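Friendly challenge for the regulars: who can give me the structure tokens for this chain first? No prize, just bragging rights.
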Amino acid sequence: MKIQRRILRPSEVLPLIGKPDFQKSRIERRLERCASVGDIRELARKKTPRAVFDYTDGAAMSESSLNRARDAFAHVEFTPRVMRDVSQVDLTVKMLGVTSALPFVLAPTGFTRMMHHGGEPAVAAVAGEYGIPYALSTLGTTSIEQLAASNPNTRKWFQLYVFRGREQTQALMQRAWDHGYDTLIVTVDTAVGGIRRREVRNGLTIPPQLTIRTLAEMATHPRWWLNALTTQPLEFASLSSSGGTVGDLITKVFDPSVSVEDISWIRNQWKGSLMIKGIQSAQDAVIAASLGVDAVVLSNHGGRQLDRSPVPLEILPSVVKEVGKEIEIYIDGGVTSGTDIVAALAFGAHGVLVGRAYLYGLMAGGYAGVARVVDILEKEIKVTMQLMGVTSIRELDADMVRLRPF
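First reply, four minutes later:
Bragging rights claimed.
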């Protein structure tokens, strides 16, 4: 059969040629082409010096704790239900008495302004825009007061390390309460700092030092260095920098003798909701619940502390069984998609803390990059729930999910 052809007319071809939306910035257009957190991670790698990217991307020693957490999510299998009306989906969940628009929190991360000069205020602004909590770290580069002033309408949590001097610990708690932080997250998995080999190999110190290597990095990442050198100096807002790695600083400043008595003391001092982060066994979850805390976070510190530590997702069912009716249970580590978040919720988590994923967004494009990550996660959560036949977070349960053999 002979195919008849015709001459193309410009009026037919021109409408097919895409036109950039010049009302959006170049970085916004690049972010829109990122279909996943993984895509944004690759963009972040290109836009930041290697030492900065590795600080976020890396983990302790062999990095097996982080890799196994991601592997666990990769082995999740859902059991979808069909023939259900999923035209309307409710993604809201109550977190410690307050409704959150999405079932995840933007987690506390250290030295955030190193990733992008917008730092913690940019992240908190995204959280406020999307109606979810943001947690400021003791190792943050923006003070408790500055963050509260720049983001008065964002729900703010404060993550606390216990200092060797209890006066400093008590002062931080009081400042956080006075400035509207309603939840305190006490991190308990940092008796000493983990060994992070990438930081040692890259010569990353806090604050960053100008060396032959960093001068060479200036040539390939001039925008990052220009922003770093022309904005406020990179330093911790709540303690003095060490000149060593973050792990060195943790070992030097934070108290390795923290025990249940200290948690009880904090419970008596703190008026708001109290969350213990760094729980890695059902036994410790039971102890935490007995101390009167409101929630625990199953976490191995994103794999940045103990090498070969337990995988939070794998221990989640046992913790839910032991204390799920007494306190709220959250989880972090290895989360790279909305599908991961749905899996954690189905296994019994009350909510998920997301850290690295939004830091990739921050490195890739500041506020716009963090917002793009939240957009991606929100869409992935919604679509996953619809394809599972679920219309609200409350409908997710353990019958809908399982871990396939590794």
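The mean pLDDT is 91. The longest helix spans residues 356-388. Your move, everyone else.
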